[in-house]
Every structure is written in structure tokens, then in C-alpha cells.
Amino acid sequence: MNFPLENSGNLIVLAAGVLFGFFIESAGLNSPRKLTAQFALRDWTVFRVMFVAIVVAAIGLWLFDVAGWLRFDALKIPTMFFWAMALGGAMLGAGMAIGGYCPGTSVVGLFSGRFDALFFMLGMVIGMMVFAVFYDSLQPLYQTGKGPESQTLAGLTGWPSWLFLLILAGLAGGGFRLGAWFESRRGGTISAKELAGSGK
Amino acid sequence: MTERKPQDFWPPLAAGVGLGLALMGMFLFTGHGLGASGFFSRLLAWLSASVAPDWTQMNSDLGNYLGASHPMNSWISWEIAGVAIGALLGSLIARRFLFKIERGPRTGVGSRIGFAVAGGTLSGFGASLAGGCTSGLGLSGGAVLAVAAFVFLMAFFAAGLLVATLTGRIWQ
User: Fold this and answer.
1) Does A182 reach chain B within 8 Å, measured CB to CB?
2) pLDDT value at A173 more than 50
3) Checking phi first, is residue A144 left (phi over 0); if not, alpha (psi -120 to 50) or beta?
4) Which among B8, B20, B130 is the nearest to A192, CB-wise?
5) Tally of CB atoms within 10 A around A7
6) Running DSSP on this structure, what letter comes out for residue A189?
7) Interchain proximity A127–B6, CB inside 8 Å
8) Which residue of A has its CA nearest to B11?
9) Is pLDDT above 70 for A68?
10) What's the rounded Cα separation, in Å, for the pair B157 and B141?
11) I want to staple A131 with a disulfide (CB 3.0 to 4.6 A). Which of B25, B84, B128, B153 is the partner?
12) What global pTM score does this model have?
């Protein structure tokens, strides 16, 4: 086996998108009330789903790599631009706290009936236009704090990847417990029935 | 009377495992992960090119997205079409599909729309600046243990928690 197949064929990508949308919807992460309840520490579904997905995909890819079935260096590994990513990440966090979505969840929100997602998308296009207009003057900020090309945690520290997988799995487990502790004190997770009964 | 109640959500663990396997499959087939904001960048470039072709071509940001000329020529647009289908199928099957403007109990429709546009604007600028979003950088970068992903995710959650102390009343 010689993964990745480097085949971004329309049907393969479409199928991956269907699963992406389906699982986000099935967890309720298309609901801005549920998404923002993470930041109120009332409902830890965002943390749980994201962290489990990262740990599962990371362990799976690591197993393929160890088995010799995967050319890991052929995968797309983003290069760090520290200030661009820290500031951009903070703006996406603030944008979710205010607007109720992130780019991906807004698509899932719209296609499960939420018109507010359409206005979030309109905002996104406006924000991207503002960025495009000021692109040249933002270049110095963008280039500040550029890390080595495609650096991984293992590359940064010299520690083995499996150690980071263990740490991430441990953090996920700890987060599940911490989340349950907060949820039992702050009203608990938001159910589908609760969402169906309000905000029409 | 047969009132059709919505099915409850999947346990986060099950949805997370499913999402993780889909993400792994995407990497194995294509070599890259899942994304979302890249679709909106291409949509904007296409819209902008149909209104002001010369300006768009000259713009050093939007010009990058014009190579594929039409958004549907890019893989990420097919992925987003899939996301839409998956969301529609999932919500219809589980009887959770509901036309609404979702908002907190104390927020009016007008303010909800205003907040949605404002939050979207921040997110659009932020995604362009970071070069990706929660899925493209956070999830996909996290799956390959990229340093960039963890910088992004820590900033995302820290800012969300901080801003939510001010905006929490919009939602709860």
C-alpha cells in the first residue's frame, strides 16, 4: 500500500464532505447555541468531538506510517506563521462567540434549516474582502514568527510522535472529566429537544 | 396524535470517532485534510472577478484563487457540496431539520442577524489571516500533529472563552 493516493477526485472528496457534514450534524455542532455553550463551559461537545476526531485521525495516520503504508512527508502539514495564526485563531474564536459559527459549521447550520448561518456567511465574505483589500499592508504581520516548513510537534521537540499521541489522548480523557464536572454545575448539555422548542 | 419528536444527538465520542475516521480517510486518499474557509475565499474571488475582473486579477490575495477560474473546479467546493448533503440528510433522517433563525432566549431576530454578520466578518478576516479555519488548520493540522494547529487551537479557545464572558448573554 502506498498512501496517500494523492487522488482529490470529485467523488472521493464529495463523499468525505458528506461524512463531515453528517457527523457534525449528528453531534449537534450545527447549532450556534450548542457551539457557544462550549465557551460558557456549559456544554463540552465542541471540545469532545474535536479532540476525539484529532486523536483518532492522528493515531490512525501514525499506525499507517509505522506499518510502512504511508508516506507521511507527502501529507499536507501547515507551516506555522505564529502571529497570523494566533491572531487569526483568536478572531475565529471571537467570531464564534459573537456570530455563533465557524466557517464549516455555518454550512452545516444552513443545510439543517438555520437562516442565521446565511448572514454569518455574508459576514465571512465581507471579512475576507477587507483582508484582500489590505493584503499588502498586512504582509509584515503575516511573515512575523514564521516557523520551519511543515513543522510537527515531533520536529519541534525531537520527541517521538507516539509520546504526543499519548499526551493528546490523556488530555482528551482529562477534558472529558473536567467537562462532565462543569456540565453538572452549569445546566448540562443542550439536547435536540431543547433546541426544537425555542428560537423559532 | 403522532408528534414526530427530534432524535437526540449522537454521543460526542461516537461523532468524534466517525469524524476522525473520515478525516483520516481524506488524508489517505488525497494527502490533505478537510477544510471550509477555502471555499469562501474562492467564492469571494469568483464574485469579485465577475464584478471587477481587472482589480481581482491584480489583487495579491484574491488573484491566487483565480487559477481554477470557477469555484467548482476546486476540490474544496466538492467537499462543501458534500457537507451540505450530509447536513441535510442527517438532519432530515433524525427529524432535526427545522427552518429557524437560531438565537438565545433574550435576543431578538434583528440583533441576532447583526451579531451573525459581525461575527462572520471577524471570522472571515481571521480565516484569511490564519490561512485556514477550525477544520482546515485546527482539525486537519491537529491530525498530522502540526505545531501551527496547536497555536491556532489555543488562540481559538482562549479568545472564545474571553469574548464569551461579554457575549454570553446573547446565547444563554
Assistant:
1) no
2) yes
3) beta
4) B8
5) 12
6) P
7) no
8) A27
9) yes
10) 16
11) B128
12) 0.96
